[in-house]
């Protein structure tokens, strides 16, 4: 479809000519929409997202409905008006739970990556191709395990699925790496180059940089910051992490 910019001049713009840059990207572990006060309050998560006004959001620990449980992703999609895709990682008693992506722009394709390790809690990644006005962007949203060996195995598997030749790639999520010099972080830095890592956990008094955003090529990353407001400090036990990227 063409878009007419100036009918008198006969000038048309293809979708790819509409510049989406800069983009605001966010990753947010919403803790099942249960805040630091113990209340289940999905509306607070939605309000935090409205504060941030990101273009693309990766979510972890999202209730996805079933078994009488509310589908929090549906509530957030309705509140933001964004496209939404889910990547369930576990189901118990019919209740589904896992990762998700919300996007201002259409999501053209999705894939899931099983990152389960032994008998530990099932983990995974949601791999989505986003069409930003004709500029393709690959977004890989994940939530890694709690143990060293588990994370090392998961990072190794994630790195095997990357294809950075066709489009820019963003890897983001809760990597659960407590130690700055952990081996899994070293592997990611060697692949993506070093990026800022603001502290995001626990949300009231952040000590650990558990949530991360990497992008390839690295030059597109402009700025990274934690979103700390009175609302975000109570809505979840993690603060949202925000990255600004440019074309």
TrEMBL record:
Domain Endonuclease/exonuclease/phosphatase stretches: 26-238
GO cellular component: membrane
InterPro entries named among the record's database cross-references: Endo/exonu/phosph_ase_sf, Endo/exonuclease/phosphatase, GPI-anchor_lipid_remodeler
UniProt source species: Noviherbaspirillum humi
Protein keywords: Endonuclease, Exonuclease, Hydrolase, Nuclease
PANTHER family: CALCOFLUOR WHITE HYPERSENSITIVE PROTEIN PRECURSOR, ENDONUCLEASE_EXONUCLEASE_PHOSPHATASE DOMAIN-CONTAINING PROTEIN
GO molecular function: endonuclease activity; exonuclease activity
The protein's name in its UniProt record: Metal-dependent hydrolase, endonuclease/exonuclease/phosphatase family
GO biological process, one term: GPI anchor biosynthetic process
């Amino acid at each position: 479809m063409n878009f007419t910019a100036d009918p008198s001049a006969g000038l048309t713009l293809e979708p790819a000519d509409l510049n989406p840059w800069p983009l605001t990207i966010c990753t947010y572990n919403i803790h099942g929409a249960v805040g630091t006060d113990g209340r289940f309050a999905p509306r607070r998560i939605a309000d935090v997202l409205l504060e941030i006004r990101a273009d693309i959001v990766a979510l972890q620990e999202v209730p996805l409905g079933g078994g009488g449980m509310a589908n929090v992703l549906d509530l957030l999609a309705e509140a933001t008006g964004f496209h939404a895709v889910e990547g369930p990682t576990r189901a118990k008693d019919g209740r589904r739970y896992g990762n998700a992506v919300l996007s201002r722009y259409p999501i053209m394709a999705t894939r899931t990556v099983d990152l389960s390790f032994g008998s530990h809690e099932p983990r995974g990644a949601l791999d989505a191709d986003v069409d930003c006005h004709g500029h393709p962007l690959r977004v890989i949203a994940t939530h890694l395990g709690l143990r060293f060996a588990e994370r090392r195995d998961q990072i190794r598997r994630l790195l095997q699925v990357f294809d950075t030749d066709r489009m820019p790639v963003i890897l983001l999520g809760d990597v659960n790496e407590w130690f700055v010099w952990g081996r899994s972080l070293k592997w990611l830095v060697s692949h993506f180059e070093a990026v800022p890592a603001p502290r995001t956990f626990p949300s009231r008094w952040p000590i650990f940089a558990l949530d991360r955003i990497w992008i390839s090529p690295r030059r597109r990353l402009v700025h990274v910051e934690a979103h700390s407001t009175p609302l975000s400090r109570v809505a979840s036990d993690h603060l949202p992490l925000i990255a600004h990227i440019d074309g």
